[in-house]
Amino acid sequence: MRVLHRRFIIRLLKIEDAEKASKLSRRILRSIREECGEEEYPERAIRHESELHNPDYYRVVSRSIGGVSLVAEHGRKLVGIALGRIHGRSGIAHLSWIGVDPDYRELGVGEALLLSFIDYVRSKGCHKVALYTLPCLKKAIKLYLKHGFLPECLLRRHWWGVDFLMFTLYL
């Protein structure tokens, strides 16, 4: 899979991207923390997520069965990432992580990643995409709504004791 845009390319994550993907994700996590603050994205959450998004994790997800791992690339720089999973033959996909380098936001990178993820899982026979997000990520929520995602529920005091929203797109 390779999708060309005016300023960047969306492609599948490769094993050799692991270091760059890890650094990018950690940068994105810090920016989310700055945007949301302690109450909506506690320090223990960013520590946990930062530990998870290590290079070995990206080496594994780049080869996992059912995994969907996409990156946005500008030149040779990774500027966005989307990770998810197709749950067997259930027809359900879960978008577990999507983020864009703070210096590349508002350029369509996140939208291109989201649409590429949707197209990919649709081509694999999925009929539904689900995702969770923090209520403080207003621009992400606006993007999901723009592309037909529906709010399913509010998960009160969920991971790390903070609220999450669940959204679903029916394909």
In short:
The chain has 171 residues and is of the alpha+beta class. Helix content is 37%, strand content 31%.
What does this structure look like?
This protein has an 8-stranded mixed sheet with strand order 1-2-3-4-5-6-8-7, sandwiched between helices. Helix 1 runs antiparallel to helix 2 (43-52) and helix 1 (18-40) crosses helix 3. It is an alpha+beta fold and 171 residues long. Helix content is 37%, strand content 31%. It has helices spanning 18-40, 43-52, 55-61, 109-123, 138-146, and strands at 2-4, 9-12, 67-74, 77-86, 92-100, 128-133, 150-155, 164-170. The chain is globular, with a radius of gyration of 15 Å. The protein has 5 helices and 8 strands; from the N terminus they run ββαααβββαβαββ. The two termini are 20 Å apart.
Topology:
Elements: E1 2-4, E2 9-12, H1 18-40, H2 43-52, H3 55-61, E3 67-74, E4 77-86, E5 92-100, H4 109-123, E6 128-133, H5 138-146, E7 150-155, E8 164-170
Parallel strand pairs: 5-6
Antiparallel strand pairs: 1-2, 2-3, 3-4, 4-5, 6-8, 7-8
Helix pairs in contact: 1-2, 1-3
